[in-house]
Design a protein that fits this description.
Residues 1-23 form the signal peptide. It holds the Pfam family GULLO2-like_3rd. Keywords: Ascorbate biosynthesis, Oxidoreductase, Signal. With 580 residues, the protein is an alpha+beta fold. 27% of the residues lie in helices and 23% in strands. It has helices at 4-19, 65-77, 131-140, 156-162, 208-214, 249-259, 302-318, 321-337, 358-361, 399-415, 421-424, 467-480, 505-515, 524-529; strands at 30-34, 37-41, 54-60, 82-85, 103-106, 113-117, 122-126, 143-144, 180-188, 196-202, 223-230, 232-233, 236-245, 264-268, 273-282, 291-292, 300-301, 342-343, 354-357, 377-378, 390-398, 429-434, 447-455, 484-485, 563-567, 575-579. The chain has an eight-stranded antiparallel beta sheet with strand order 19-13-15-14-22-23-21-24. Strands 1-2-3-5-4 form a five-stranded mixed beta sheet, with helices on one face.
Length: 580
Amino acid sequence: MLLSRPTLTLKLAFFMITTIAQCNPPEEPIRCSTNFTNCTITNSYGAFPDRSICLAAEVAYPSSEEDLVSLVAKGTQANRKMRVATRYSHSIPKLVCPEGNGLIISTENLNRIIKIDKDNMLITLESGVTLRQLIDEAAKSGLVLPYTPYWWGLTIGGMLGTGAHGSTLWGKGSAIHDYVVRMRIVSPGRPEEGYAKVRTLEENGESDSDMNAAKVSLGVLGVISQVTLRMQPLFKRSITFVTQNDTDLSDQAVTFGRQHEFADMIWYPSQKQVVYRIDDRVSTNVSGNGLWDHPGFRAIPSLVLLILRSTEEGQEARGDVSGKCIGGKLTINTLIKGAYGLTNDGIIFKGYPVVGYQNRLQASGGCLKGHKDAELTACSWDPRVKGLFFHQTTFSIGLSKAKDFIQDVQKLVSIAPRSLCGVDLYNGILMRYVTGSKAYLGKQEDSLDFDITYYRSKDPKNPRLFEDVLEEIEQMAVFKYGGLPHWGKNRNVAFEGSIKKYRKGREFLKVKQKFDSLGLFSSEWTDQILGLKSGLSMFKDGCALEGLCVCSLDIHCAPQNGYLCRPGKVFEDARVCTLV
């Protein structure tokens, strides 16, 4: 009976996930007690890594560049801290938090497509335009971005702020910022400039160093007003997912990205499986009107989310590793059989390959669509309901080192074979390709990006099953292999010493000083991750459980639950919370 509950609940969940048609869009991440003052802001998951409450004195919703200039000028004249927020606030770290009597500038109303130049294949848009808007509007003119993140709910400004990307080693690469040809950004100015300055940056222009800093800016240079992107003619893709044993994954991962334009991989280490995405352009004459609607991004009944979360909490409390492994295997099999949400005609999956236009296959986000339904349905992570609550550890490792890293993870799994079954419940480890970039805070070389999502307890003092394994993978990636953290994801530990890994980090700081000498668009968090201020690690009881520190004492773990600070099993320099 112990093992039947997760199996039954997951079957119920996937049945309802694949049949639900309605949804309840995410709520506004900013809340104010008095009109637009006395505010709090969170991320779309309802909790920052340190679970702190982010306060702001005021929020503003500009709807034009003129509004932005006015807001920045007033803020600069008052020496006021400012930060930029997006519609859905998807960054996990505290990038949106201002300091003190701070102002949040929301780009929610900066959501217009300004110009589509079909002849020159350029599109100019405001920074609050979402990826979904961009894809839809560009397709109407026969244009498309070749590579994007897989989730609709990101804004152009947010993607540039954090270096968001898709998956490819071809052409200019998979990062959105490498398709920017022009940008307008509003920054603090001198008194003689009216306390605000609008800069127009252009690719290969006189301000090339400024552009290379602004492409991935963490929001510390000012507010992006407008962006012009280089597009491509709308094309078709052909997609086939192939499941194989992971025995030779370390070799395949290094070469697979060169073989297929949109290649990625989903790795299930505890199941010893990997799913390869064989994905390439085909002629528009090839028949097919395929659609991608990933189950993880669909609206899910709140009751199902309650069952899923309660089941996993029960497994964690009982130490039910077998239940997690059975549930993980069922999740994998269901996704594989359902082609990860691909359909040949927008309705039914009939078989591979799935052929369709790029705008229908490059991203999805069904839970963003529709009208409010009293929270009967929600995105799976929506904090208004009892749904999924998780950590995301995401880093990129140079292709030259990726083979050894994968083999180290496999060694770890061979020591603890069921240790990553919990990751399978969140669809394994997504592996995407990203090329080196001229952006100062972009990827430094052609790399493989690893995206790991896993259970997070509502109680920060409660350890996870196999706490030590995921901590060791995190430290192995960041410290042994020099992995670069995704700026919009991760726990504090992943950012330790990260700025030193960027060859042009000092050049970025010079541009930051030029654009905002008073540091008005900087915050405690951005200063910490840029190496300008200490305090990134927060040493206290249980800090290692939440990734707020690397343990050095047993109290950083959970000694009351038998979790003590010990060396890693494969990466012996790691210090992890181990059940002893």
